[in-house]
Design brief:
This protein is an all-alpha fold. The protein has a single domain, classed as Orthogonal Bundle (Tetracycline Repressor, domain 2). The chain has helices spanning about 5-20, 25-30, 35-40, 45-65, 75-90, 100-115, 115-140, 150-170, 175-190. The longest helix is centred in the middle third of the chain and has 27 residues, at about 115-140.
């Protein structure tokens, strides 16, 4: 791993634990064992580093959360697998995200303080909700979900449940509570399928 990659990866951990505003340049220099010159040689500002961290975090998220979905035929089973991946491969990834979901941490912190950065994060949440909605729509079209079920309502429930699980897990680090929440969402999906 070169210095630029090391800076990004160590900063992902710091932002996950402390957020953007509470992570100082000193913290980043200490964790990466580099100088200001080494840091600023790769990133001309903390905001530039934020965008690199966001990009790499999204890549990690996709690799973890979408793993194996292309092997599954039924769209509703893809949503269930996605929820399991989110729980087991992403939220419990202490190596990369020791503080929990970096996107939730940053969005809560930045919404009032740095709205232009928060908008970048919100775009990811919009795309996540659209993906869940699309899979559930496909599932309903395939006859896997009962006709009386509102796809928009289920999408909101899944999305809100995921964010709620992320916030709670970030506070208590309880695998049992996280497992219970995600299992409840998955079990609900099973109850609405034909």
């Amino acid at each position: 791993m070169n210095l630029k990659e090391k800076i990004i990866h160590e900063t992902i951990k710091l932002f996950s634990l402390k957020g953007f505003l509470s992570t100082s340049i000193k913290d980043i220099l200490r964790e990466t064992s580099t100088s200001k010159g080494g840091l600023y040689n790769h990133f001309n500002s903390k905001e530039a580093l934020f965008f690199a961290v966001l990009s790499e975090s999204r890549k990690l998220w996709r690799g973890k959360c979408l793993a194996g979905l292309d092997q599954i035929e039924k769209p509703i089973d893809k949503v269930i697998k996605f929820l399991e991946n989110y729980r087991d491969r992403y939220l419990k990834d202490y190596e990369n995200f020791p503080g929990g979901c970096i996107f939730v941490t940053l969005s809560v912190e930045l919404s009032d303080q740095r709205p232009h950065l928060a908008r970048e994060l919100n775009g990811g949440f919009v795309r996540l909700k659209a993906m869940i909605n699309r899979l559930l729509d496909q599932s309903k079209e395939a006859g896997e979900i009962r006709d009386d079920v509102s796809i928009e309502g289920i999408t909101e429930m899944i999305f809100s449940g995921m964010l709620g699980a992320s916030v709670t897990y970030g506070m208590d680090k309880s695998n049992a509570n996280l497992d219970h929440t995600i299992n409840s969402l998955s079990n609900y999906l099973r109850t609405i399928s034909d």
